[in-house]
């Protein structure tokens, strides 16, 4: 039943086999055996795609209910024993994950030796359900309307440039002056080529030219430190560069919007006890 749900959600025997660490033939045999047992065809297969039959779609919904009940029952027993155990697959943003979350996860691993942790570091926005993650840590202004999220903390932002850049091109005193400067912006999907500041107690967006862009804050801050432009970065990226004077803060009179630090959960199943224990642990440490 669990294998069937995974195949239905991923629409791929190969992807499920990869997640389970088994041969594709094992997954296909299990689905075939399930169909034989039920006496109905659950999936329509072709060389290009895999789709659920009407019977398969109805069976999928019932399977999800049953598996959630099983998960809830197992979670209740685990909570009674006060023991967190089992695997957790977590997606982490690259810079923040390595700098701030990794030490916390290692401490959690020491405190909970019966939990195994699979860490995936990427700035890409993963699909928790399709890619088999139990949890994702994301830095964002606001989670998506359909996402199940718990706020763990907040991230402050700063405008940065190197002393060398400012000596050559001057220091902007107002966000409107950024249009006359080289700016180093994120190229993540959905990110506009503008930065927002609080001016006269109102949030205003200012267009910024960007000759060099990247999807990672460390890369942009390094470019700024080498005198290639101005960037806006979160505190955890800026701190080591500020500490040694490779960059300095700008436009400090104008606030930037804060970002939230969130634990994002897949919305299609009961949250296992071990995952809730980890989220509580992260909340206290971060």
Features:
286 residues, alpha/beta, Arc Repressor Mutant, subunit A, D-Maltodextrin-Binding Protein, domain 2, 3 domains, 5-stranded mixed sheet, 14 strands
In short:
With 286 residues, the chain is α/β, with parallel strands linked by helices. The protein has three domains: 2-79, Winged helix-like DNA-binding domain superfamily/Winged helix DNA-binding domain (Arc Repressor Mutant, subunit A, Orthogonal Bundle); 83-155 and 260-285, D-Maltodextrin-Binding Protein, domain 2 (3-Layer(aba) Sandwich); 157-257, Periplasmic binding protein-like II (D-Maltodextrin-Binding Protein, domain 2). 42% of the residues lie in helices and 26% in strands.
Word description of this protein:
This protein is α/β, with parallel strands linked by helices and 286 residues long. It has three domains: 2-79, Orthogonal Bundle (Arc Repressor Mutant, subunit A), CATH 1.10.10.10; 83-155 and 260-285, 3-Layer(aba) Sandwich (D-Maltodextrin-Binding Protein, domain 2); 157-257, D-Maltodextrin-Binding Protein, domain 2 (3-Layer(aba) Sandwich). Helices cover 42% and strands 26% of the residues. The chain has ten helices and 14 strands. Strands 4-3-5-14-6 form a five-stranded mixed beta sheet, with helices on one face. Helix 1 (2-10) packs across helix 4, helix 2 packs across helix 3 (24-38) and helix 5 packs across helix 10 (273-285). The longest helix has 28 residues, at 54-81. The model has no long low-confidence stretch (mean pLDDT 89).
């Amino acid at each position: 039943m669990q294998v069937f749900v995974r195949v239905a959600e991923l629409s791929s025997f190969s992807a499920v086999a990869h997640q389970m660490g088994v041969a594709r033939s094992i997954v296909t045999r299990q689905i075939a055996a399930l169909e034989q047992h039920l006496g109905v065809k659950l999936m329509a297969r072709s060389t290009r795609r895999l789709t659920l039959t009407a019977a398969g779609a109805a069976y999928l919904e019932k399977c999800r209910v049953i598996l959630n009940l099983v998960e809830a029952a197992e979670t209740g027993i685990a909570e009674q024993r006060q023991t967190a155990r089992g695997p957790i697959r977590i997606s982490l943003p690259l810079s923040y994950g390595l700098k701030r979350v990794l030490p916390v996860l290692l401490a959690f691993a020491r405190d909970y030796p019966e939990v195994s942790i699979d860490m995936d570091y990427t700035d890409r926005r993963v699909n928790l359900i399709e890619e088999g993650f139990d949890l994702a840590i994301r830095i964002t202004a606001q989670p998506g309307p359909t996402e199940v999220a718990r706020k763990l903390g907040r991230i402050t932002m700063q405008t940065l440039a190197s002393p060398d850049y400012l000596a050559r091109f001057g220091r902007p005193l107002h966000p409107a002056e950024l249009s006359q400067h080289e700016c180093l912006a994120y190229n993540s999907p959905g990110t506009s080529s503008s930065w927002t500041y609080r001016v006269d107690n109102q949030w205003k967006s200012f267009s910024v030219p960007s000759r060099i862009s990247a999807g990672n804050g460390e890369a942009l801050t390094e470019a700024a430190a080498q005198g290639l432009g101005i960037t806006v970065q979160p505190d955890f990226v800026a701190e080591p560069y500020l500490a040694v004077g490779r960059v300095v803060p700008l436009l400090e009179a104008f606030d930037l919007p804060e970002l939230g630090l969130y634990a994002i959960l897949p919305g299609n199943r009961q949250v296992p006890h071990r995952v809730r224990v980890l989220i509580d642990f992260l909340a206290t440490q971060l």
